[in-house]
Amino acid sequence: MKIFGPLYDRAMRWANHERAPTYLTVLSFVEAIIFPVMPEVMLMPMCVAQPRKGWWFATLSLIGSMAGALVGYALGHYAFEVLKPVFEWMGMLPAIESGIATLQEKMIESPWAVFTFLVLGGFMPIPMKVFTWASGIVGVPLPQYVLSMLVGRGKRVYLLAAVIRFGGARAVEALRRWIEPLGWIATVLVVGLVGWLVWRAKFA
């Protein structure tokens, strides 16, 4: 059953919409707070459709993500207990609690250990909101937090734009050819990672 190929073709059509840059910025902002869909889902086809604008699209995504990261941090710091039932209902609570435990361990080491962890976390296929909320709850120092989010998210979006920009037509053709197996592999990895986080929160 083919799922990701047709989705890819549809995403390519959406990527050429005149308001696509605005939608990308808004998606990046909301994803850092609560929305489950990563902005790369929209950024990638936009870069493929208009590779010369890839750097600009990546910058818009980064701006939206950074604004959302600050809001997510503030909500985690000031409103987590109030919103805790919502996260439990959404099934996000185990992942956030696991992130809290890890950040607390890193805080004991040093603020820069937290920075390193968040930078590495920004490159993992883990929703950004897990890190933004957990950082606010733990109280990660704001300078390290902002810098780590900037580096972690920045390297993701700019690397994606660079691969498509310099890969050219061959990268686009290869992506279309392999989108189905890549989509299923990514799905399995994300499900496995979420399962591991849930297991760790319950039994570790």
UniProtKB/TrEMBL annotation:
Transmembrane portions of the chain: 20-43, 55-80, 112-136, 181-199
Keyword entries, A-Z: Membrane, Transmembrane, Transmembrane helix
Name assigned to this protein: YqaA family protein
